[in-house]
């Protein structure tokens, strides 16, 4: 089974990663106050503290479902998952978390109407067995402007793939990344074609887009 304390710690860490990534891009990130039920997106995002530009909620998908024959979640976090298995791709977890995020936004807007016109981003993190975002359509909840994920070392990977086989083998053999771009993190953005409020263009330009 999945340990709730571990899940909570991972979710908290993921929120910090998103906050740091926005700050790296020059944005101010403010955690939103939460009521007793916790119905709030995580952050508002701005260039100026008195002028929010976007809202952002962070979601983590820990499992791609449950295998009844094993009594285990399809997750690297479940020690009961063993051996090989077959499991159909299930997009419902992403859809459910988007719907939950929309409800959090709705609760916020009901209390603070000035947030109503802001684009709303949902940042996702996935367990390796649960990352099915590539199969998710680019038309979804209209209140969600786009889905964010974080990609590691994309410029470095692209540069490595352009090298000859001999050069690649040498790098792998020596474990030396000399001549390649430095390690990096980038937001990857799935823009919602059905969004009521599109993602700001200046932010899009700072993301890898699908």
Describe the structure.
The protein is an alpha/beta fold and 210 residues long. It has one domain (4-151, 185-209). The chain is 30% helix and 23% strand. It is built from five helices and nine strands, in the order H-E-E-E-E-E-H-E-E-H-H-E-H-E. The chain has helices spanning 4-24, 92-111, 154-161, 165-174, 201-204, and strands at 28-31, 43-48, 51-61, 66-67, 72-73, 120-126, 146-152, 185-191, 208-209. The protein has a seven-stranded mixed β-sheet with strand order 1-2-3-6-7-8-9. It has a two-stranded antiparallel sheet with strand order 4-5. The longest helix is centred in the first third of the chain and has 21 residues, at 4-24. The model has no long low-confidence stretch (mean pLDDT 88).
Number of helices: 5
Main sheet makeup: 7 strands, mixed
The tally of strands reads 9
Strand content: 15-25%
C-alpha-based Rg, rounded: 19 Å
Shape: globular
Task: Name the poorly predicted regions.
Answer: none
Mean pLDDT: 88
Q: Structural class, please?
A: alpha/beta
- Record the strand order, biggest sheet: 1-2-3-6-7-8-9
Helix fraction by DSSP (H/I, runs of at least 4): 25-40%
Give the termini separation.
34 Å
SSE series: HEEEEEHEEHHEHE
Total domain units? 1
SSE layout:
Blueprint: H1 4-24, E1 28-31, E2 43-48, E3 51-61, E4 66-67, E5 72-73, H2 92-111, E6 120-126, E7 146-152, H3 154-161, H4 165-174, E8 185-191, H5 201-204, E9 208-209
Parallel strand pairs: 3-6, 6-7, 8-9
Antiparallel strand pairs: 1-2, 2-3, 4-5, 7-8
